[in-house]
Design a protein that fits this description.
two-stranded antiparallel ribbon, about 45% helix, about 10% strand, two-stranded antiparallel sheet, mainly alpha, single chain, about 120 residues
Length: about 120
């Protein structure tokens, strides 16, 4: 009986499988996911619309404040980096607010942990 290990060498049959054969034998949803992941891997400017099931390659200027994208399908605007987290303000403004919120949350978590230790010690 052969032992299976992570380092076991496997024979390669040398058969070539064409893309169309793989596509025809894959469920439609799986193939759609594959194409989406492939596009994201091949292009760092690929983005998914948060409002619609659509992936596109977006044109982004060098201006870091202008990361707004418009979906080709539904024509909704969204941020390339933050999706639909902020709609009417710049990324920098959103990041400042998110950072402040995170700081408040960390403080609250710290206070909760301290309170648990006090209760446990009682």
């Amino acid at each position: 009986m052969r032992e299976k290990t992570a380092t076991a060498k496997r024979a390669v049959c040398g058969c070539v499988i064409c893309v169309e054969d793989i596509k025809s034998s894959s469920p439609s949803a799986t193939w759609t996911k594959y194409e989406r992941f492939k596009l994201h891997k091949e292009n760092d400017r690929a983005s998914d619309c948060p409002f619609w099931n659509h992936t596109q390659v977006v044109a982004i200027t060098d201006d870091a404040d202008l990361l707004e994208c418009v979906c080709e399908s539904c024509h909704e605007a969204f941020c390339f980096i933050h999706s639909c987290a902020h709609t009417s303000r710049a990324c920098v403004e959103y990041e400042k607010q998110a950072s402040a919120t995170e700081k408040i949350n960390r403080t609250a978590i710290g206070l909760t942990r301290q309170a648990r230790h006090v209760v446990a010690a009682s």
